[in-house]
Amino acid sequence: MKMRSIISILFLLQTITNGVNIVGAQSADFGVYKCRNSSNFTTAAYQKTLEIALDSLTGNVANHGGFYHSTAGNDTGTPVNALALCRGDIGPEACEECVKNSIPSLRRNCPNQKEAAAWYSNCMVRYSDREIIGVVGNWTFGELFNTARVSDIGEFNNALNNLTTRLQAQAAGGDSFRKLAVGNVTFGPDSLTIYGMMQCTPDLLREQCSECLYGTITELHDCCSGRVAARVFFPSCFARYSNEHFYNDPPVISLPPKLTSGKKNNTARTIYVVVPVVCTSVGLIGIGIWFFLTKTQRKDGMSKKETTSFSSLLAKQKQTSTNDTVGIETASVQSLQYDLKTIEVATNYFSQKNKIGRGGFGLVYKGVLANGQEVAVKRLSETSSQGVEEFVNEAILVAKLQHRNLVRLLGFCQESKEKILIYEYVPNKSLDYFLFDSVKHGHLDWATRWKIVGGITRGLLYLHEDSRLRIIHRDLKASNILLDQDMNAKIADFGLARTFEVDQTLGNTKKVAGTLGYMAPEYAMHGHFSVKSDVFSFGVIVLEIVSGRRNSSFYQQDDVEDLLLFAWKQWTGGRPLEILDQSLAESSYLENDVIRCINIGLLCVQEDADARPSMASILNMLNNNSVTLPEPKKPPYFLSNGLLLDISGDPDKSIPTLSSVSKSSMTEMHPR
């Protein structure tokens, strides 16, 4: 079993029936606490503010339908945001009691942390010095599970997948009052029934709730495959299932007073009188806002002409190719726009000291916004010939993507000649920064590498199957995998991404762009791309993670060979562990997990695109050891097809030639 950094609390095994372990009802209400130790407070003023924020939750949460949030603090101190969420099926008395009892326990377990959370069976309480309303909280999570297992794990997991997928959609589709779903599924010859519940804090948008619940489903697979009962808690959502009926159906919790119909007549009469006044006021306010925005926009250095030009560019991009961009309305995109002055101040006017990287797009700077939020600022190079199109593509494509294994786009700036993207700041740089460094790769033990592989898998699965449109990244490589403070993988750089309709499987381009060594042969040679071309790139990364070596590093003067063929030779020779990074030789790792990763990597880099597995299949292969993996076929040998790789040491540089086709049909390749 792979190492975990989270706390697991085990339920007691009580009965065994019909070959299936059954858990009895639990009388104790286990509490799970998480304290963010990276940020502590030392002043009595903050503690007093925290107490005010938490105290306001009791007496209010039950009266507001089981969800309540508050903010305490003033201009001179750090504000504290707090919220409480009760299970959506319980009554107000049980809700109030749970919240009231959990707050003192939370304060005892996290005595001086600026951010913490507590989960009980009936409620969740959390607080933070950061904004938490309308934000998906994934900085921590907890899990509880029963040690008992079912007899047929494969059948059980399939049934549970069907249940959690259904509940995820139902809960995310809830309203601003409650995002809750309950249900059950019966399966197997013994007609075993599994009951499930999923819930989000109702301040989340539909997409945010779905993303959060997707994380709980993933963790249920990781921690609890085949277990008869389990729970996973995130700060913004939770998932629970059991072989016992544990929820109230229908829910017994009360609606808040404003949603009851007791004053229907008075409410209607009030609306009738107030509407004309409100409409007039809204009209005047709207005119005022229009004048204010117009003045502010020109004051910030963005002329009307420039705004219109950018809007036209977005509209043109949307009209000309629905396969190249996600169709997000121009107004929605422009709502994410930052003014140049804000970005200049945040980056100390693009100071060299703030520079943290360089990509095909241009330079990347670290910045700090006025509210203290750290950001990564990607500044388009003025000399880039493809920059404008890639800029629009990336802004439109990434704006609506919400997943914890993707780097989140916060906004963009387009003023004068500047074109800038603003992303969340990911502190641990990129995977290649650690993986291919002779010293830093020591930070990547096997447990961390396994977690990174899983994170990339989940991110790609979201892009290929769970986002609004099917998205092909086209430039997946180690330098485009960023690592957060907990070494979680986040896929970055969508400048070359393309989108498919749901039923579309293959795309073609005359302009092949990407990084040789990671490119699938059908894409490099013929411009054909699909989800399976991303799978090929993923397979290369997996083999690099296992070996700690670049694909392009395998070069011999008389026998040019890449990592893929090297791994294949060791695999067919019965020596798969020969490719394992030597720095892992003395560390703790499971041999079966390493061999499984190598097998998956080789399956992904097969020459026949149809033979490569989907990302959903790969996730199942990683999480379910009972799945028998097929034998991979020999990977392609690029040099035999006339592709010459640049071995100068720059992984983003390529010098391609095509000797097997005439110059007139030659595919154009753009180095990144």
From TrEMBL:
Entry protein name: Uncharacterized protein
Domain of life from the UniProt record: Eukaryota
Organism of this sequence: Smallanthus sonchifolius
